[in-house]
Write a structure and sequence with these properties.
about 450 residues, mainly alpha, 2 domains, 17 helices, about 0% strand, globular, DinF-like, xenobiotic transmembrane transporter activity, antiporter activity, ion transport
Length: about 450
């Protein structure tokens, strides 16, 4: 009989986790890096920099909201593909993949035409007016052309992740990010005598071109590296209904998430242009941190779904502990690095003294909440891989409408302004992390 010490605990190896997590981190931060580079470049134009920065921040938040909501099929297809991979039944989803990608494409066209037509009404709801409103409309109508490109790309990335591969998505995102930053400088500032300075509209054009490059690369990897194709079958795959149901619950979850972000930006805009400019910087840094940490959540998503398909519950439990530990370490490193360069970070994005003062007065809240964010994002990823979309939906609804919103209302009434917004976000993340940890422990600890 082997001793207890000699019995090896079933675990997913550090290498296996990081093979998925590290490329996912790079792929994940490409999108917020694009937004951050847009804001840094736009915020330093000579003419109407504060108004342009505010407009870019508002549009960036709305675009993120729409893309997050509509891209939930990416998470759903990833979960289904990973579960079928774990049970050695990939053949059962071969027709599901092209049907899901086609669904994303058609949905993106509808959303583009509806939102472009109502752009003024949408951004007026963010309390944008005057020059800021004019900038948001012109910037959005160009940026939104990338909807079909992004949503099809994201669906393909979901397939890659379900196959336990995030390297292909990383390569696409890196090239897309490099193209976007290069074109930002070229089109925003222009080249005297050759290319006119297009300012905010130049940044929008750069983003659309970068999204097109990413899609072309994603299609290349899809055809060359995966067992799937894009020829749609007239016979509906039996997994399409569960996928739509999962995506619908994640849609509602993400809608609740983006209501919180909308309320934050709406309140900040109402406080004045300096407040929304500072809020734009804070929000995009928060999103950058979120996507960075989310690389390990992607590993939890992909590996968790595969382990569930294989009924490897002990490995699943150990996976949750390991990726949470790694994510917290990364969150602490990110927060610590920003604390060291606390005042210098704001100068990257804007030189206005009032904007920088507002930014630095609140930035510390963004930093201290990062370990809590890490736990919430980790279990978000695992629960998505397990197909627990209904519970994720309920958690976000509670966190938003019983946590974030009441906190914001009370603290806004007390005149705390940007403090009210970010304390409300902290409460929001605490509720999310606690609810997910308790649920996972209750459901899976006894199965180990």
């Amino acid at each position: 009989m082997p001793s207890k010490k000699s019995i090896k605990t079933p675990k997913v190896s550090f290498r296996e986790i990081n093979t998925i997590a590290l490329p996912a981190i790079v792929a994940g931060i490409a999108e917020p890096l694009i937004s951050l580079s847009d804001i840094a470049i736009i915020g330093n134009v000579e003419e109407n920099a504060v108004e342009a920065l505010a407009a870019a921040g508002i549009v960036g938040s709305f675009l993120s909201a729409i893309i997050w909501i509509l891209a939930q099929t990416k998470t759903a297809i990833s979960a289904i593909v990973s579960q079928h991979l774990g049970s050695n039944r990939l053949h059962a989803v071969k027709t599901l993949v092209p049907q899901t990608i086609l669904l994303n494409f058609l949905l993106s066209l509808i959303i583009y035409f509806v939102t472009a037509f109502f752009a003024e009404l949408i951004f007026s709801a963010y309390n944008a007016e005057g020059l800021i409103l004019d900038y948001t409309k012109s910037y959005y109508k160009i940026r939104a052309l990338g909807f079909p490109l992004t949503l099809v790309t994201f669906a393909i990335f979901g397939v890659f992740r379900g196959l336990q591969n995030t390297l292909w998505a990383m390569k696409c995102s890196l090239v897309g990010g490099a193209v976007n930053i290069g074109l930002d400088f070229l089109l925003v500032y222009g080249i005297e005598g050759f290319i006119p300075a297009l300012h905010l509209e130049g940044a929008a054009i750069a983003s659309v071109i970068a999204q097109g490059v990413m899609l072309v690369m994603a299609l290349y990897f899809f055809y060359k590296k995966t067992p799937f194709h894009l020829k749609p079958s007239l016979k509906i795959n039996p997994n399409l209904k569960p996928l739509i149901s999962m995506a619908a619950n994640l849609f509602l979850r993400t809608l609740a998430l983006n209501i919180a972000i909308y309320l934050a930006n709406s309140y900040a805009t109402d406080y004045g242009k300096n407040y929304i400019a500072a809020q734009s910087i804070l929000m995009n840094i928060w999103l950058f941190f979120s996507f960075f940490i989310d690389g390990y959540a992607n590993a939890g998503n992909a590996i968790g779904g595969k382990l569930l398909g294989a009924k490897a519950y002990t490995k699943l439990w150990n996976l949750s502990k390991d990726i949470s530990k790694y994510a917290i370490i990364i969150a602490l490193i990110l927060a610590g690095s920003c604390a060291l360069f606390y005042d210098e970070i704001g100068l990257i994005f804007n030189k206005d003294e009032q904007v920088l003062l507002l930014f630095s007065s609140v930035f510390w809240i963004v930093l201290i909440m990062q370990p809590v964010n890490a736990i919430a994002f980790m279990f978000d990823g695992i629960f998505k891989g397990l197909g627990e979309a209904k519970y994720l939906r309920n958690v976000l609804l509670v966190a938003t409408f019983l946590g974030f919103w009441p906190t914001l209302l009370v603290l806004d009434y007390l005149g705390l302004k940007l403090y009210a917004i970010w304390i409300a976000f902290f409460v929001w993340m605490l509720i999310r992390s606690l609810a997910l940890v308790i649920k996972f422990r209750n459901k899976y600890l006894d199965k180990t």
